[in-house]
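User: Before I run my own analysis I want an independent prediction to cross-check against. Here's the chain; please return only the structure tokens and, at the end, one sentence I can use as a sanity check.
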Amino acid sequence: MTEHMMGQPREWPRLRVQDWTETRDTLHMWTQIVGKIRLVNAPLLNHWWQVTLYVSPRGLTTSTIPYRGGAFDIEFDFIDHQLVIRSGAGSIKTVALEPKPVAEFYAQTMAALADLGIEAEIQSHPNEVDPAIPFAQDHHHASYDGNAANLFWQQLLRADRAMSEFRSHFVGKVSPVHFFWGSFDLACTRFSGRAAPSHPGGAPNCGDWVMVEGYSRELSSCGFWPGGGEEGAFYAYAYPEPDGFSTYPVAPAEAFYSVENGQFLLPYEIVRSADDPERMLRQFLQTTYEAAAELSSPACGG
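Assistant: Structure tokens:
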């Protein structure tokens, strides 16, 4: 069965950031609520890997969350446009994904959990954003364009596939390809195994100790973020950044180092328009990793 026959055309979707900014920002807050539910129930993993979401065949999922003697999961379904909460006991609750304030989504999600007998007392405000409006008081973010959300998921599907293939070639410590709801990006990180200098922190409304743990080991990270370009951008950075990293010759030629962001960027629209988008993205991921690996001493990873 071809990808087209399965209803997922090979073309990379076009979604201009300016066309869905309000939906993106509302969805960002919704994913923070769901991510925090996972956070309070899952055991701590290195670099906060236990808090992330994952690209699924229908949207974004928490995967299995342990709860007392059982488990549950939560999935953003961007096909039927509902939040689906499934209990290991067999019960299912849903919350409609539609234009509504964050405060309403928050109340409905917590009520659905309570109906399933799941307690989840989460931090009441978002992280890594400013201002951090408490969820129960956020009537500002209230947009949901279902078509845009579906296109974003399709962007994530293609980025996830390419990044997962890139991840498979590394034999050292490497993160899953996962979605961080704090920064609202899909990421994959390789580690050298060496300790890194203490991270200075500085993320808005996020304790510095969070970043210290996240960046406690030398790393090379890549990902996709729905910003930084007309249709989003792929990025790559190293921590700590080695001398010469910003001027390292990476591919393709359209990639550039952003001093403002402290990372290499490759606009999504450049990849989407390429004759072979996955090949272009692989070039970017590989050469930016080589910049980190070859300029670190000794070489990062293996």
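Sanity check: Confidence is low (pLDDT under 50) at residues 1-5.
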